[in-house]
Task: structure prediction
Amino acid sequence: MNYKKLSKLIISGLIALSINSVEAADIVDLNLDESVQRAFANNRTIKQAAANREAAYWSLSAARRQANPKVSWEGSGQKVGGKYYRNSSYNRTFSNTASVTMPVYTGGQLEEQRETARLELNTADITLEQTLQEVRATATTLYYYVLECRNEIEVQQEAVTTLQTHLDNVNAQFRVGTVAKSDVLASQVQLAESQQALVNAQNNFDNAIADLCNYIGLPADTILRPRDTLTYTKYNLNLENCTKYALENSPACAIADYAVREAESAKRSAKSGYRPTVNASINKNINGRREGHNDITDYWTAGLSASWNIFDGGVTSSQVKQTEAAIIRAQENAAAARESVQVSVQKAFLDLYAAEKNISTTKIAVDRAEEDYKIAQVRYAAGVDTNLAVMDAQEKLTDARSNYYTALYRYNVAKADLDQAMGIPVSINVNQYVQAQQNGKTAAEAREEAAITDEDAKVPTAGEVAPVVTISNLDLASPLPSESVEGELTR
Result:
């Protein structure tokens, strides 16, 4: 197809300086599960969530170490002079102080800092799971859209083939004088419109492949060959059970609940301003003077120091009031999250139900449209019906086939959306994780208890940033994805 080759030549000329040239684009055969697994391995959003989780882990580590003893040293040395020191027996001074300090009581501030850091780590774990679920849903939708676009190419290709055959028949009848010239012209116009629809379908497929490749970490010019087809599998789902499961397992609900607990911890931390703080310290001091002989003072001190803001101008009270408002805000957000989850489940379930009904309806419509088109052809050949009736029957047949595949696509996408809305786990069961954490388990222990597989039980870590995926080839020897489909349909 020359227009595609020309477009590829122009594009390759524009970006030739920024891509690596190879002999041909890669050809990858994959199914839905392989697409999702590639997305898990390569999607940058997941890697960002893993990095956030690791940052939260080290934030907790830092919070824990705030209660540890701290050792410091401070030293100084000076040379002194001037008229006040002319008769002095020294011209140099020095001092060294080594200290060990440790907080004994902070009014609960350090404890709440550790609690907040623990909750942030738990939130990061759940957020990572939420990201995985979102990536699974998006990769699934993109893959199904590729299948939908491939089906649309097939539908439009069949329409072009059918109209071309009809045009050949009309031309044959026109040459023998049995039909008018207007029938030929009308058939040519219908064929041209169908060819345009095929071009658009091919372009949509090429763009769908590029979007999927980008999402799962492949170069955009990769020739993907999906091994699946859009099918209908009956799901015996109940809206009430789906909603109940979602409220217990949705990451969004768990994250909102952790935000409430963090706000409550912040309030307790703010209240520490009402209480005194006590610190323990041990100091070793060495001070001296030098001028031919040493005059050194060496001593140590150990004890406790306490401070208490008996009146701080109402600062602590204001901070407590601020955290109380933050708790209400977090609680409202948690309630809104549950309402949103319920709506998401209901919408996905209703979309699933509607698509399911449309599948059976459109399948019947396809069968009847095929029969109607055959009848219209026979009647036209017999001279008892018009060319307009044939083209109208053909257009309805094309629409019926498109509607059938669209219903299949929407059904499968609605199921993927429902899985995400319900919180169907990818690596950890959110409800089990939350229960384990509330029972005193650490984040790593809770993850191990809630993991779907042994591999998922491993604590995720942030790795090195992968290089940017670049388009490897756009030369004339490399076909577009839709051209590969076109070759399959014409064989």
In short: The chain has twelve helices and six strands.
